[in-house]
Amino acid sequence: MPVDSPHVTIVIPARHASSRFPGKPLALLAGKPLIQHVYEQAVRVPNVAEVLVATDDARIHESVERFGGRSVMVTTPCRTGTDRVAEAIRQLPCEIVVNLQADEILLSPDLLLDLIDPFLAGDAEMGTLCRPLTCREEFAQPSVVKVVTDRQGKALYFSRAPIPHARDHAPDHPPFASLHLGVYIFRRHTLNRFASLPSGELEKAEKLEQLRALEHGILIHVWETSHASLRIDTEEDLERANASWDELVR
To answer: Mind listing the domains of the chain with CATH numbers?
Structure first.
């Protein structure tokens, strides 16, 4: 990393408790825990000073240390993964913080460069990524988060619902929304501000932490990526990934 570059740290928040998939970070994919796949791909991202896992569970902490990764225990109760990230970096010197989900495996390190590079080149306080969404089945699924932006690429809204509702368009018209990837980048002071804010009503209704930022006036820049990642939400997702792993990593 050039000496004059901001100190960029990737933090991977990971918890053992999950209503849909308990113990997911330790579930095995191609013989390795999911958290190891996420971590090992994160350390391949160029010009990142540090990668660490932030967890409240000793089993995850010990697993990360066994494969040679860095992990910090966060025992303070946290509302969301981003709040856990904010707690983890209190004693770290980082200026720029990337929150990478513990179930989002990068299939190319360039995916995060599509987030980090434009963020460092501009004056955004918070940013995230999206991909084009053209599958109408995904558009309708509540598990797939959608985002709509203004003409400058700033987020207008995120939702589990199909947004916007195209009243007069034919059913086969492509969606206007994009698929949102749950990865975020913050300037340190913005992350600290985010964690200090009360949970918003929209955040609580949709169970989407990024809505807290919008409700409190924090602009979120959204950049598009064409690079693939593998998201594991359920045990069925894990079974499919194990069955097709050789094709995924070609």
So the answer is: 8-245 (3.90.550.10)
Task: Name which of 53, 68, 93, 97 is nearest 195 in CA terms.
Answer: 97
The DSSP output letter for 31 is: T
CB contact set of 211 (below 8 Å; sequence gap of 6+): 157, 158, 200, 202, 203
Q: What is the pLDDT of residue 166?
A: 78
Query: Alpha-carbon distance 15 to 149, whole Å?
Result: 31
Residue 154 is classified by DSSP as: B
Question: Which residues partner with 33 through β-bridges?
Answer: 28
H/E element, 113: helix 110-121
Residue corresponding to tokens 């807290």:
212
- Measured CA to CA in angstroms, residue 2 lies from 8, 19, 73, 113, 131 at distances of 12, 43, 30, 16, 30
More confident residue, 138 or 238: 238
Tokens of 160: 């589990």
Question: What residues contact 224, with CB distance under 8 A and at least 6 apart?
Answer: 114, 129, 130, 131, 132, 178
**211 SS3 class:** helix
Q: How far apart are CA 231 and CA 102, in angstroms?
A: 9
Q: Give the 3-state secondary structure of residue 123.
A: coil
What pLDDT score was predicted for residue 165? 83
User: pTM to 2 decimals?
Assistant: 0.93
Residues 158/215, Cβ–Cβ less than 8 Å: no
Q: pLDDT by residue (tens digit) across 64-82?
A: 999 999 999 998 999 999 9
Tokens 């190891």 correspond to what residue?
36
Whether 195 contacts 184, CB under 8 Å: no
